[in-house]
Amino acid sequence: YTRLFEGDLSEEGPGLDAAENLYDAIIIVGTFTEGHVNELAMPSLLRVLKSGGVLTASVKALTWENRKFQAYLETKERECALEIVEIVHGVDYLRGGDDPSTATVFTIRKP
Are 104 and 87 contacting, i.e. CB atoms less than 8 angstroms apart? Predict the structure, then answer.
């Protein structure tokens, strides 16, 4: 790691204070949940991802359904903003923990 920074990815937040096309890959775990960050953070994340770069994220199942994440990703794919590589439903959200909920894990590529 060469730089650690905090960013506000909420709907009202300024996004990430990072240059465009900076990262080859982004991994997001435990961020897309109810009352936290939602799909509207994607433009800010895609902005800092290099062309050809991949982003993999987990989304709690409730958030995936309530926020209509799949429809959002499919719309952005039709707009050529991203390519859906894989979507896996039913992944244990917190294996061995007290939270029995599941998550969807998706991987996208920036064109």
Answer: yes
Residue tagged 């993999």 (tokens): 56
Residue 22 region by backbone torsions, left for phi larger than 0, else alpha for psi between -120 and 50, else beta: alpha
**What pLDDT, on a 0 to 100 scale, did the predictor assign at position 99?**
63
Distance CA 105, CA 32 (A): 11
Query: Is this prediction's pTM over 0.70?
Result: yes
Rounded to the nearest angstrom, the gap between the alpha carbon of residue 31 and the centroid of all alpha carbons in its chain is 8
Is residue 49 within 8 Å of 26, Cβ to Cβ?
A: yes
What's the sign of the alpha-carbon dihedral 91, 94, 97, 98? negative
Is residue 45 classed as helix, strand or coil in its secondary structure?
A: helix
- pLDDT tens for 47-90 read 999 999 999 999 999 899 999 999 999 999 999 999 999 999 99
Nearest to residue 51, comparing CAs of 79, 23, 28? 23
Position 87, amino acid: I
